[in-house]
Amino acid sequence: MAAGAQKNPYKGKPERPWIRVRLATTSGKFLEFELLADTGNPCALIISDAMMASVKMADAADVTSNFGMLAGGRVRIAMPGLALDRTVVGYASDAVYQAAKASHPDFAGLAGLPLLRMAKFGGDADVFWFKQR
Amino acid sequence: MGANSQSDGRRRNHDAYWRDKDRLAERYPAGWFVAYDQGKVIADAADFESLRRHLISQGKDPAQVLVVEAGVDYPKEVVIF
User: Fold this and answer.
1) What is the ipTM of this complex?
2) Contact A86/A79 with Cβ under 8 angstroms?
């Protein structure tokens, strides 16, 4: 498998697809999160308020949702193994974070279609993969 | 700055952006980055990193500044799960 490519066994109750995402922090370090992959989600990513505070490069437009208001923040995705280094608009919501955590405690939020389609993604009966385009 | 005044400032920026949205699309090339602080446009640049560096050089904390792209339709409402 190519460097940086992910092949992640489904996990959680119920079992969910997920990806590992690396974000730059405002202090120049990097944080890795496991995010539940949700192809029906129109937001690139949704993480907790506290995590967003560590990685928010600038404020971004908010959006309302069935989980309440999602606070916008521009974050930098830094995943050289997948040739991804770009800023995207993400969102902070503790309600969504808790919903993802309820599936599996490792999940730190959701990755939606705008993030997933920056790379190749898909799955089979056992794993969900995420790899360079 | 206190949490309340940060929240007020954030609200002002967001209100100003939604008010100006169509005008931004006419004034700037599509995808141009525009920064709002205190409810006003304070800077703009062709790319996000240039704008962020400019804000820092002006003593601004970019995390407290609303940055939008001209001509982009940000969703106002979404359904999750």
Assistant:
1) 0.91
2) no
- How far is residue A69's CA from residue A51's CA, in Å, rounded to a whole number? 16
What is this structure's pTM?
Answer: 0.94
How distant is the Cα of B5 from the closest Cα of chain A, in angstroms?
15
CA angle A23, A18, A53 (to 5 degrees): 30
Could you give the CA distance from residue A102 to residue B55 in angstroms, rounded to a whole number?
39
Q: Tens digit of pLDDT for each residue in B8-27?
A: 889 999 999 999 999 999 99
CB contact under 8 A, B77 and A67: no
- Residue A106, C-beta contacts closer than 8 angstroms, at least 6 positions apart: A11, A18, A34
Q: Which residues of B fall within a CB distance of 8 Å from A74?
A: 48, 67
Answer yes or no: do B52 and A58 touch at CB < 8 A. yes
User: Look-up: residue for tokens 């995390």?
Assistant: B63
Within 10 angstroms of residue B67's Cβ, the number of other Cβ atoms is 28
